[in-house]
Specification:
The chain is of the alpha/beta class. The chain contains 10 helices and 20 strands. The protein has a 13-stranded parallel β-sheet. β18, α8 and β19 form a beta-alpha-beta unit. α4 runs parallel beside α5 and α7 packs across α8.
């Protein structure tokens, strides 16, 4: 071979570097694609990539408007060609009103279980009355590390015989629980560290959340269930959405709590919200009030129904406060912190007018100061840092 031809050959190899990547690296790259269908399409890039997708340990299926029977056949075909000995992640998502018999999905999920799947996401957005019933064999799969369900029914859950010994993170959305479901789940998940419950209902009128391993708890949108929480190692607590006076969480025993994020709302009929919920966060290092909760504080303050307890927290975050409409709630939030050292204010960004959410003190600054002198004097004695985020598009402080 002439020197010129050899140089051309070497140059072509350098230009086609993608074909010379090791198999393990190619499969790792494919695992980050949005879906398995996208991974299959990469067979067009190189002949050597023709079967690489069959050994990717991440399977992600989205129906994305595809007729449900066609989608089901596509999943079956893909699983038939899958050549992985172990699956790290299995994600199944269907669109609205795509309901078929449960056993059709059970067959696909059992494939992932046989491959010792570690992360399982089941997102079946059916009609609420036709929720997918989770198969009984799923509750005995000890290899699970992460589980996320949406519109899934736990009615087939075996009573007291759940085996999720390695489960670290559990997210359950839009579920109607049978009686004692949460208690059974926690009892069978001794390693659970993160629990998220979103828009769920229950046959029981009370959840009892007891865990020695749980470190993070997220609760959102509870309408008809009371919550009793006893988690000795809980570090982060998040309370979002809609809660009523009679179903606010009761943190009975959470001595390790470090961070709490409070941003719930309630109907005007229930505006007499029990403000004593704040007292649960006395020992929290970092407390964050969202705009909805500040709105409640403001409304109760105007009605004269507010006598919140003083807090010993040194770090407060106000998330997206509305200074113009809810100044009373902001002043109340600042007043109850008699040892506050750091205040963080996160403003929403408006491209058209950045200052629309800040108080106008040009004409009435002296009056504003005098009317809130007690609050400002209190803050001046111990406040060390004020941090404001969102003043510009890059969110510089």
């Amino acid at each position: 071979m002439s020197k010129k031809n050899k140089r051309v050959t070497l140059q072509s190899k350098e230009e086609d570097r993608i074909s010379y990547l090791p198999d393990s690296l190619v499969q790792h790259i494919l695992s980050f694609l949005p879906s398995t269908k996208d991974a299959i399409h990469t067979t067009l890039l190189s002949k050597r990539w023709h079967n690489q997708w069959t050994r990717v340990p991440v399977l992600i299926f989205h129906s994305a408007g595809m007729p449900i029977k066609k989608f089901s056949r596509f999943v079956d075909y893909t699983l038939l060609l899958c050549d992985c000995s172990k699956i790290k992640k299995f994600h199944m998502q269907t669109g609205d009103n795509h309901h078929v018999q449960d056993f059709i999905w059970n067959i696909k999920i059992s494939f992932a279980i046989r491959k010792d799947v570690e992360e399982l996401i089941l997102d079946f957005r059916f009609n609420y009355l036709q929720q997918y019933r989770l198969p009984e064999f799923l509750f005995k799969h000890a290899s699970l590390v992460k589980l996320h369900t949406y519109d899934c029914n736990f009615v087939s859950m075996p009573n007291g015989s759940i085996s999720w010994g390695n489960l670290k993170a559990l997210n359950i959305e839009h579920c109607h629980f049978p009686s004692k479901a949460i208690e059974n789940i926690l009892r069978g998940s001794p390693s659970l560290e993160s629990l998220e419950l979103v828009s769920n209902t229950s046959i029981s009128d009370e959840y009892v959340i007891v865990s020695n391993s749980l470190k993070k708890l997220v609760l959102k949108d509870f309408w008809s269930v009371r919550l009793q929480i006893s988690c000795t190692n809980l570090e982060e607590f998040n309370l979002f959405g809609i809660f009523f006076t009679w179903n606010h969480p009761n943190l009975m025993n959470c001595p390790s709590l470090i961070c709490a994020n409070v941003d719930f709302e309630c109907d005007e009929v229930f505006m007499g919200v029990d403000i004593e919920i704040i007292s649960h966060f006395q020992r929290v290092k970092e407390l964050k009030f969202g705009s909805q909760f500040i709105k409640i504080l403001s409304a109760l303050n105007l009605e004269g129904h507010l006598s919140p307890p003083l807090l010993n927290n040194k770090f407060l975050t106000l998330d997206r406060p509305n200074f113009e409409e809810h100044s009373g709630g902001i002043e109340c939030a600042l007043h109850i912190y008699h040892v506050l050292e750091k205040l963080v204010i996160k403003l929403p960004f408006y491209k058209s007018q950045r200052t629309t959410n800040l108080p106008d003190l040009n004409d009435s600054g002296e009056n504003y100061w005098n009317s809130n002198r007690e609050v400002f004097d209190c803050l001046a004695s111990h406040l060390k840092i004020i941090e404001i985020n969102g003043l510009c598009e890059s969110d510089d402080k």
